[in-house]
Specification:
Elements lengths: L2 H17 L17 H9 L2 H17 L3 H21 L7 H17 L6 H21 L7 H23 L5 H25 L1
Length: 200
Amino acid sequence: MTFDKYVAAGAMIGFLTVMAVEPALAHTGADHGAGGFATGFLHPLLGPDHVIAMIAVGLWGVFLGAPAIWVLPIVFPLVMALGGVFGMIEVPLPSVETGIALSAVVLGLCVALAAKPPLWMAALIVGAFAIFHGYAHGAEMPVASDAVSYALGFVVATGLLHLCGIGFGSLARWPAGKLAVRAAGVLIAIAGGAFLSGIA
């Protein structure tokens, strides 16, 4: 199996996983169950703002090329896990929902514009937004959940969403595919703007 086929297979698994989950319209802060890994795994998939931002990270990584295509989807979950710890121990962090919505706007625009900053800058942008996403996951952890299993669940789900973005972003190898990927970036930015206006 070639490298491209591995990426396509992984993206398909991630896509099917995402599609199998009933979507939610926003964060409710509600207890999604008392499980550990499964509850953590579902949490990112239940928030469309999380989903589109995670996919945008994968899409942007494709435009940036190697090594960013793998660095960004590694940086995001690692920093997100730290944000999750902050949320679990209730470290004050203002404007979490605004930060999440802004992540979709900014990352969507980076894809739409095919922005190519230096790798360190791209990683810094992605890492900064990861704090907000992780914080939301950690703060909404059900009381009865095992923290480590829960965190592992939302990190794995996030990785699959990144893989979906990478899989779709692979279309950018062709001119028409590049337009489709950039159009997806526009839609992500618009959706992020809608989330942002809903918060304000």
